[in-house]
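Supplementary Methods, section 5.1.

A reviewer requested that the exact input to the structure prediction be made available. We therefore reproduce it here, unchanged from the version used in the analyses.
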Amino acid sequence: MSKIHIPTPLRQYVGKQPAVDVSGATVADAMNSLVAQHPELKRHLYTEEGKLRAFVNIYVNDEDIRYLQKEATTLNDGDNISIVPSIAGGVG
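The structure derived from this sequence is encoded token-by-token as follows.
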């Protein structure tokens, strides 16, 4: 099992849990397990075409999956997965 850490704005869709235990051999499997358990979360993470939204960043043990094998990144028991929404803005 791996643990997916849920950012505060999305916790309302997972019963206000800070993390959810999931199974899966890859990040894609783990994310599918997450949205199977909490279907309302899917529209916030994925486009209608099933692609991860551009502003959703995923880290496995503090490593950005964009620099690994993306959603095909292999997981080991006990891995920590973090969903980190992009933040934009600043002083004008």
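The helical segments are 27-37, 42-45. These observations are discussed further in the main text.
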